[in-house]
Amino acid sequence: MAPPLSRRSLLQAAALAAAAPAISHTATGRAAAAVQEAQAVTAVPSAWSVQPFALDDVALRPGLFADKRQLMLEHARGYDVNRLLQVFRANAGLATGGAVAPGGWEGLDGEANGNLRGHYTGHFLTMLSQAYAGTGEQVFADRIGTMIGALTEVRAALRTDPAVLSVGGRFGTAAENVRGSYQYVDLPAAVPGGASAITLSAWVKPAHDGNWARVFDFGNDNTRYLYLAARNSGGVPRFAVTTGGPGGEQGLDGTAALPLNQWSHLAVTIAGGTGTLYVNGTSVARNTAMTLTPAALGTLTNNWLGRSNFATDPVFAGAYDEFNVWSRALSAAEITQLQGARAADASAGRGNLASYAFDETSGGTFADASGRGLTATLRRTWSGPSHPGFLAAYPETQFIDLESRTTSDYTKVWAPYYTAHKILRGVLDAYLATEDARALDLASGMCDWMHARLSQLPEATLQRMWGLFSSGEFGGIVEAICELHTITGKAEHLALARLFDLDRLIDNCAANTDILDGLHANQHIPIFTGYLRLYDATGEARYLDAARNFWDMVVTHRMYGIGGTSTAEFWKARDVIAGTLSDTTAETCCAYNMLKLSRTLFFHEQQPKYMDYYERALYNQVLGSKQDKADAEKPLVTYFIGLTPGHVRDYTPKQGTTCCEGTGMESATKYQDSVYFKAADGSALYVNLYSPSQLTWAEKGVTITQATSFPREQGTTLTIGGAGAAFALRLRVPSWATAGFRVTVNGSAVSGTPTPGSYFTVSRTWRGGDTVRISMPFRLRVEKALDDPSLQTLFHGPVNLVGRNSSTSHLRLGLYRNAGLSGDLLPSLTPVSGKPLHFTLDGTEFAPFFEGTEDPTHAYFRRSEPRVVLGNSDSGVANPAKSDGTTLLDEIWAGAPFAGKGALVSRVRSTVSAWVSAGLLSQADGQTVVRTAERATYAP
User: Which of 465, 483, 468, 467 has its CA nearest to residue 421?
Assistant: First the structure.
């Protein structure tokens, strides 16, 4: 059978077909299909009037972004992907090769309780895909291939009954239960045999110290049973038998914990009212009042090795060698013999009720050597096989539970469709980067599975599900499904995307009704990027209206200076900033998803505010969330960025493998994705960000090389390469660029007046060697908290400056003392020699937020201008304030920039006069302020 056409082959076929003359309709066949698929792969929504360039069209050049990316690439190269695959392989019952699961949210323990397994693997795949696209390094493609191959095997295994994992045993071979496999051995009901005396013997090698995992459990329910647990709540083995539930248990407790990853022999005997527990041949517990035997329990239907009749107990993780059951109590001497030989070679002989040697190396059944023919079967607790297309690192049970759940409980169901999104996004990105058809098949299969499941649910059920906090979270799955639909063209995939409509959210936001107070921020931000893609696919205006209005509700009313949003993961009321500052502000995922939403909105409507926000969040929170340190084992990315005084960033949050570390890996490998955009008709090139980079614009036959050390440099240079091409060069004029924005082409000034918060257009036929120079002087400015104007944050151009100070109280700072005639506050600070963008003020060093250090920082400070100081001349007059907090100095400097000293002094006179007339300042103090202004010397 011929291999499937890769994406590159499809594109080549499309190009050849487009260039070749029409020969006949009968000759097209597969080539025509190739053309159609290639067109689908490269399709950009027609609603996008502006389009992005692919990551491999934009190369990062040495600079701030390349340095940060390099740190993350060390992690992408160094982390063992088999650790990520371990949770998938374990869930499917496949060998894990001894790989250790990542732990944290990707593990079975801790906060996530195993309910988020697989999400981080999706993030990692996306990171690798972006790293490969951005660098072309084969190592990333190889790692993607390994992961896609393994996930393909996992999906196939989930579609079949489990098969034994044969490993070395105590005597020969053994059967392994990998932790997370949910596998157990189902024994026939006849095994206990209704015996009045019994011995049960097993060789086990525990791999995990979870309490109450069963070596065996024979019972009907939680009332009638007998079991042997490897560990009870005290961490030691326990045997119990009861006909009246836990309160009626007759038990035997060991004295020491079983060692992990070592073989131990356990045996229990019951006869004549006495029960004895042996560990490694030694009697460790004896109960002379054990009156219950299997005969008292009757016929039991659930006879299991490794599984408990209590649903919340863990499945046994480890290996079994022999399991034997005799209808008599073996003597202590016989038990001792079993320590050095198989039962068949000892005086006890094989169990006469059941005897399993676990010699099988394939299949899913275990032969019984007792002579009774009681074949045992390997099963999964969640039954199975899974449905076609299903791919996850845990069973379908979370998805099933969500459908009937009316309240959120992330200890039981934690966002299964969110995790599905991460996996879907990861395999889709792998396909787009490497053209591996297996990855596309995985993505398409997942969506087929989701459609088959969700399309059967009533609309009311879907609305209830998606409205649940955490449990119903689905991340950016709509965006990924819509993107897949552009490739597959399958109607079911578009229909699936629409099944995630959360009508209450869409309709309120479309009507510009703010209902965000109390909502989980990152549960909802990525939804809107998906709804924009639904607008692209359907033309329904409510999706676009909702996304546009939602963006304003967040950025205008709930944004911190660094571009982040949320406190303790949630939103509060509009315009409350100071009142929400805490150690858990600005979840990193929120910034990541707001960037995606902003750029997608810009594709539809070229409002400069979207790219102004993009610059703010990218240059501050996103860059600052990555520690300036390489680590193969950890991405070193923040979860929260606390904005309280003296906060120290935590780059190893919670227990690891969190959502924010996942999005942080992605952010650090796609810094170049929004530097340049192009008009859909090719008529214009948008330069959105000033970053050292090189764009290859193949359709125009040109390159654009940007040389700059921005933001350490207050400008940039663009050089055109290649053949001539006519297009409009649209340069973003940042909203903070109030000190001027000057453009020259080949040394000659370009006419026009650039306006802050707009795009400045230079139209011409460009030729190789043309050079565009842009200068944009920075000014120091403050931004005030909406609910407390005295609480402020400091910016130098696009860069948020934070004070490095261990104090846990807000710093009190004055900035007018040496403000320049331009209104620039920078002269009040002292530059630090040899450290660009570092300054000192009142003994505190201020540094760029984007530096990923572990210094205690102050992102916000308390503005304090107690006396009227002008040009470093202290008038000695107290700085009065109005009832709204506006001070005399505030009102004076609101008139900046000033053409010269005379203009400033005139402003001082008029302002003082007004304040004296209003009774806010005495005549004498007013005269003193004016004289001080006249005597002072001012910076430009």
Answer: 483
For residue 197, the one-letter residue type is A
Angle at 365 between CA 359 and CA 371, to 5 degrees: 70
Which neighbouring-strand residues pair with 378? 185
Contact between 730 and 759 under an 8 Å Cβ cutoff? The reply is yes
Per-residue DSSP letter, 311: T
d(CA 538, CA 2): 36
Torsion of the alpha carbons at 213, 219, 220 and 223, rounded to the nearest 10:
-80
DSSP secondary structure string, 747-771? TEEPPS---TTEEEEEEEEE-TT-E
Strand, coil or helix: 140: helix
- Using CA atoms, how far residue 890 sits from 12, 225, 864, 870, 905, in Å, is 64, 79, 11, 12, 15
CB atoms closer than 10 angstroms to residue 492: 15
For residue range 813-860, what is the model confidence (pLDDT) as tens digits? 999 999 999 999 999 999 999 999 999 999 999 999 999 999 999 999
Provide the pairing of β-strand 830-831 with 742-745.
unpaired
Q: What is the DSSP string of 231-273?
A: --TTSS-EEEEESS-GGG-EEEE-SSPPPTTS-EEEEEEEETT
Q: Are 887 and 821 in contact (CB under 8 A)?
A: no
Amino acid at 214: R
Place of tokens 């005549």: 923
CB 101 within 8 A of CB 86: yes
Rg (CA), the chain: 34
Task: Give me the pLDDT at residue 34, please.
Answer: 35
Report pLDDT for 348. 97
Residue holding tokens 């083995």? 237
Q: Is the pLDDT of residue 387 over 70?
A: yes
φ/ψ of residue 718, rounded to 5: -110, 130
298 touches 194 (CB < 8 A): yes
CB 578 within 8 A of CB 785: yes
The dihedral region occupied by 435, where left means phi > 0, alpha psi between -120 and 50, and beta the remainder, is left
pLDDT in tens, 517-532: 999 999 999 999 999 9
**Segment 103-149, tens digit of pLDDT:** 999 999 888 989 999 999 999 999 999 999 999 999 999 999 999 99
d(CA 187, CA 182): 16
pTM over 0.70: yes
H-helix segments, 316-474: 332-337, 397-404, 416-434, 437-454, 459-467
Runs of H (alpha helix) within 499-540: 503-510, 521-538
CB contact at 8 A, 558 and 516 = yes
Position 600: which residue type? T
